[in-house]
Amino acid sequence: MTISMYQASIPVSIRSLTNLIGILEKGAKYAETKKIDASVLVNSRLYPDMFPLSRQVQIASDIAKRGAAELAGVEAPKFEDNETTLSELIDRIQKTISYLNTFKPEQIDGSEERTITLQMRDRTLSFQGMPFLLYFVLPNVYFHVATAYDILRHCGVEVGKQDFLGSP
Amino acid sequence: MTISMYQASIPVSIRSLTNLIGILEKGAKYAETKKIDASVLVNSRLYPDMFPLSRQVQIASDIAKRGAAELAGVEAPKFEDNETTLSELIDRIQKTISYLNTFKPEQIDGSEERTITLQMRDRTLSFQGMPFLLYFVLPNVYFHVATAYDILRHCGVEVGKQDFLGSP
């Protein structure tokens, strides 16, 4: 027995995005309780030239859906990046999870050596499927979900690591 | 072809910890250039009741070495948690990477269904090897490395996502 590409990708991304929804919901509740305009949280960042919460969430969504699509050799849906509230960001993540849930193991399994080419702003990245998943997709998703968490934590939202890890 | 437990664990943790060293080195350089007492960075946090940078690094180290040891059914070395400078934190991560490098694939492969029990402060967690790796060890390592990154980013250190992802 080993780990299939499907097992290591789709349920793992879904779990992290599901936890992100819980974190954003805690943010929304906090804003409500403290009577903070929730857009303050949506636009918060840890440093002036860093992406705000909204963009962290959008990128986590983009990497997860694009990652799955590339492994399956299909085109990912494009989302508008027009969310301005926490509840719109939560909807965005829910839509992403619904999309991930459409993948069947047989679409992803066997993609270990598939050549994946990403056109970035300034360069082209080329990967085989397994390193693409282990060294690009998953750390990228975790990076943006953890940073969304850290932004809200920094704003005083009472989240703890268990919210990031989720329950089995 | 699928992913082996070794492939999904040891080189993945080593990659993330190697990137953490690069991030800490940028922090040390920044402190030197700006004439900031480096202990300010070591003790920085994003919120008063959150762990500072030093503890984030120590926990990333602990989870990575304990994760590998549990999968292999051996006991992980205990480190002192007495680092007070960036260069001591870098040494700690280097020691952790050296330890991870001692594992051979045959020690980790086949651990997908090994029962792993963790005694936490307030409860006992029990996992099978594969979910332990995918849903506990890796997100935990990424969480603490990303948070260490976010703390330094918040302090003005010029790190970018590429420092977190590293190069293939």
How would you explain this protein's 3D organization?
2 copies of one chain form a homodimer. By secondary structure, chain A is mainly alpha-helical. Chain A is built from 7 helices and 2 strands, in the order H-H-H-H-H-E-E-H-H. Chain A has a two-stranded antiparallel sheet. In chain A, strand 1 (115-119) and strand 2 form a beta hairpin. In chain A, helix 1 (5-33) runs antiparallel to helix 3 (53-72). Chain A is globular and about 50 Å long. The interface between A and B is large, with 40 and 40 residues.
Task: Give the arrangement of secondary structure elements.
2 copies of one chain form a homodimer.
Chain A: H1 5-33, H2 38-42, H3 53-72, H4 86-101, H5 105-108, E1 115-119, E2 124-128, H6 129-154, H7 161-165
Antiparallel strand pairs in A: 1-2
Concise account of the structure shown:
The structure is a homodimer of 168-residue chains. The first copy, chain A, is mainly alpha-helical and 168 residues long. Chain A has seven helices and two strands.
Shape of chain A: globular
State the low-pLDDT regions of chain A, or none: none
Give me the strand/helix succession of chain A.
HHHHHEEHH
Give the termini separation of chain A: 21 Å
This entry's quaternary arrangement is: homodimer
Radius of gyration of chain A: 16 Å
Q: Count every helix of chain A, treating DSSP H or I runs of 4 or more residues as helices.
A: 7
Which two chains touch over the largest interface? A-B, 40 and 40 residues
* Secondary-structure content class of chain A: mainly alpha
Helix content of chain A: 55-70%
Number of strands of chain A: 2
Could you give a short account of the major beta sheet of chain A?
2 strands, antiparallel
Q: Strand fraction band of chain A? A: 5-15%
Strand arrangement within the widest β-sheet of chain A reads 1-2
Can you give the mean pLDDT of chain A? Answer: 96
